[in-house]
Structure formats: structure tokens, C-alpha cells
């Protein structure tokens, strides 16, 4: 009788969430953002995010804080001047610029989840997955595809694979689901591929 395969569970103590600072026009996205925050709090997973009190970002923070979760906000100093910062967080970290903000969010987190958003959200997602591709980290990266928001993006990524610009194994670094709980399970059981690390953090 074959021995059972033991799956190592990732210890996700803190998850960084990338998402829009705008609310968008689909209430389902805002509801799922709050649900994600709630589930993170219920599973005793701290939320790391961009510290805004507005938009989808504010919804995630609200969902966590309303259920006793720990929420760590990371924001560059110049954005605090625009009065968008959430002052009711567990911890607020201020950085000098956007790049330091992303480095700090990466440093604090055991995994990443991307919700719907705009250019900034896309930039954060693609930078963190590029770092994984280059072997800078082995943390799980999840895409919460609320109401098919990312269907077209996923189709474009498949075109990149088909045209030889993206390796399938790198596409597979992105864990996709439309349900919060199911995505977290994927992240907990994620096994990172062995990638030779040739780029150091100080060269990013």
C-alpha cells in the first residue's frame, strides 16, 4: 500500500493585499473585499496593505478590523498628505517613496492576494510575480478573480505563453480562484518551484 503524500502547509501569518484605491462600480467587488478581510481575521492572518481608508483598499481593511483582525498599513509619506490614510489601523508604517513601500510590504508578508484595481494594482502584481520568477522569493501569489474581472488578463497571459514570451511554469506561479476560502487553501498548499536565484534584492 503506497504511503500517503504529505503536503507541507505554508504558514501564512501575514498576507499582503493589492487592490484599487477607487471603489469601482461593481458592488460585488466591494463585498468580496470586505469578505476577504473578514476571513483573514477569522483565520488569524494579519492584513498588510497600502493603508488607504478609501476604495477597495478601505473595504478590505474594514472587513478585517470589524472582525478583530490585525491590519498593517504601509504608505509613502507623500500620500499621507492627500488625507487618504486610514488612522484606525493596528500599525501604520510610513516610507519615503513607492519603491520602499513595496519592499516593506514584501518583507512583512508570507503571501500576496490581488483584488480588482487599476494601473497601480497591476504594477504591484506583476512586480511581485516577476520577483518570484527571478527567484527572489517563494511566497504564494493569489489572484482573486471577482466576477470575472481578470478573465481578459488571464487570456492575455495565455497568449503570451502560446507566443513564446512567457513560460507555462511562470504563468503557473499565479494562483487563481474566484472564492476567498478556496484561494487561501491553494496558497497554504502551494509548493514553489526550484528556481536558481540570480538576482539579488539590491538589484531590483
TrEMBL record:
Q: What class of enzyme is it?
A: hydrolase
- What PANTHER family does this protein's entry cite? LOG FAMILY PROTEIN YJL055W (PTHR31223:SF70)
The EC code for this enzyme is 3.2.2.n1
Which InterPro entries does the entry mention?
LOG (IPR005269), LOG_fam (IPR031100)
Q: Name one Pfam family in it.
A: Lysine_decarbox
Q: Would the keyword Hydrolase turn up in this protein's UniProt record?
A: yes
The reply on keyword Hydrolase is yes
Q: Which organism is it from?
A: Gangjinia marincola
Question: What are the protein's UniProt keywords?
Answer: Cytokinin biosynthesis, Hydrolase
Q: What protein name is recorded for this chain?
A: Cytokinin riboside 5'-monophosphate phosphoribohydrolase
Q: Which family does the similarity line name?
A: Belongs to the LOG family.
What domain of life does the UniProt record list for this protein's source?
Answer: Bacteria
Which reaction does this chain catalyze?
AMP + H2O = D-ribose 5-phosphate + adenine
Amino acid at each position: 500500500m503506497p504511503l500517503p503524500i504529505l503536503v507541507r502547509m505554508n504558514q501564512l501569518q501575514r498576507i499582503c493585499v493589492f487592490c484599487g484605491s477607487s471603489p469601482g462600480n461593481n458592488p460585488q467587488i466591494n463585498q468580496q473585499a470586505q469578505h476577504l478581510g473578514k476571513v483573514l481575521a477569522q483565520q488569524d492572518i494579519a492584513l498588510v496593505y497600502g493603508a488607504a481608508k478609501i476604495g477597495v483598499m478601505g473595504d478590505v481593511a474594514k472587513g478585517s478590523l470589524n472582525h478583530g483582525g490585525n491590519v498593517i498599513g504601509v504608505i509613502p509619506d507623500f500620500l499621507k498628505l492627500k488625507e487618504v490614510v486610514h488612522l484606525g489601523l493596528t500599525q501604520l508604517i510610513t516610507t519615503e517613496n513607492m519603491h520602499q513601500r513595496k519592499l516593506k510590504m514584501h518583507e512583512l508578508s508570507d503571501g500576496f492576494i490581488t483584488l480588482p484595481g487599476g494601473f497601480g494594482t497591476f504594477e504591484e502584481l506583476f512586480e511581485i510575480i516577476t520577483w518570484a520568477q527571478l527567484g527572489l522569493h517563494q511566497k504564494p501569489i493569489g489572484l482573486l478573480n471577482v466576477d470575472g474581472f481578470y478573465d481578459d488578463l488571464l487570456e492575455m497571459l495565455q497568449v503570451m505563453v502560446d507566443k513564446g514570451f512567457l513560460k507555462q511554469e511562470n504563468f503557473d506561479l499565479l494562483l487563481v480562484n474566484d472564492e476567498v476560502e478556496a484561494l487561501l487553501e491553494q496558497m497554504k498548499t502551494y509548493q514553489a518551484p526550484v528556481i536558481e536565484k540570480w538576482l539579488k534584492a539590491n538589484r531590483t
